[in-house]
Amino acid sequence: MIATAPIGVLDSGLGGLSLLPALHAELPQESLCYVADSGNAPYGDRCASWITERSAQIIRFLERQGCKAVVIACNTITAVAVERLRRRFDIPIIAIEPAIKPAVALSRSGVVAVLATTRTLGSDSLQRLRERHGDGRRILFVPCPGLADHVERGELHSPGLLAQLRDLLTPALEQGADTLVLGCTHYPFLIDAIAEVAGSQVRIIDPSPAVAAEVRRRLAASGTLNPGRQRGRITLWSSASAAKSRHLAGRLSGLHVAAQLLPPLP
Ligand code: DGL
């Protein structure tokens, strides 16, 4: 692998951009090649075999772009497909997953709520994560169908969104949840609205800095950290409109992002 090669990042849509500020801050010299499959989002209600095959197509595309590693910036892909993808590909794959372990360590009430897609929360891998890190605490699963769509539309705060969040969060809050895990990469963009509904006593865990640190560790271990001093470029490939994605990506990530249309993938 060439150290100056870009890092590939993929998500069902724009949610994975929530990782970019942390990745860019941790590794400013690395170029990032981000695929937003917004034309097919949301993944959260799709079946596992579709998600696996589509993710494999995108990883092959990122390999063709010369990427030296791939970051799965989508909890849903990780939950249902990462093991099979790692068996299929030689390229290093670093994958985000809900931050249950730090949430359990922080919770005072002993009740933690994980907000994620239906597919993520229904997966065997999340059950295993809950068993491994639950530490005898109550880990409530809160499926949030439709929530990622707000981010894809660029709607980060609205009366409709707040009403939906109240419906989703109230049962967990009433059961004493004092720590919320954002188990979908779209949700950090809704953090203000989530905090408004949850109240200031509730902690919200965003795993982006931990993932960025893991990417650094993995690149350092394989000797593929970019030794250059120039800031890396961020290129976004979207399966929806490139112009709309460029505008939203800049607004969401606060970074300069060059956007192009993702070609049909074999
Ligand atoms: N951003 C994705 C995740 O982290 C999924 C959102 C969706 O497409 O349903 O799970």
What report would you give on this structure?
The chain is α/β, with parallel strands linked by helices and 266 residues long. The chain contains eleven helices and ten strands. It has helices at residues 20-26, 48-64, 75-88, 100-106, 118-121, 124-133, 147-152, 159-174, 191-198, 208-221, 242-253; strands spanning 7-11, 32-36, 69-72, 93-95, 111-116, 138-143, 179-182, 203-205, 234-238, 258-261. Strands 4-3-1-2-9-10 form a six-stranded parallel sheet, with helices on both faces. Helix 1 (20-26) links the parallel strand 1 and strand 2. Helix 1 (20-26) crosses helix 10. D-glutamic acid is lined by residues 11-13, 15, 41-44, 74-76, 117, 120, 148, 184-186.
Q: Mind sketching the topology for me?
A:
Layout: E1 7-11, H1 20-26, E2 32-36, H2 48-64, E3 69-72, H3 75-88, E4 93-95, H4 100-106, E5 111-116, H5 118-121, H6 124-133, E6 138-143, H7 147-152, H8 159-174, E7 179-182, H9 191-198, E8 203-205, H10 208-221, E9 234-238, H11 242-253, E10 258-261
Parallel strand pairs: 1-2, 1-3, 2-9, 3-4, 5-6, 5-7, 7-8, 9-10
Helix pairs in contact: 1-10, 2-3, 8-9
The structure holds D-glutamic acid.
The CATH topology label of the largest domain is Rossmann fold
Strand tally? 10
User: What is the CATH top level name of the largest domain?
Assistant: Alpha Beta
Q: Calculate Rg over CA atoms.
A: 18 Å
Which class best fits the helix and strand makeup?
alpha/beta
Helix content: 40-55%
Bound molecules: D-glutamic acid
How many domains?
Answer: 2
What distance lies between the first and last C-alpha atoms, to the nearest angstrom?
Answer: 24 Å
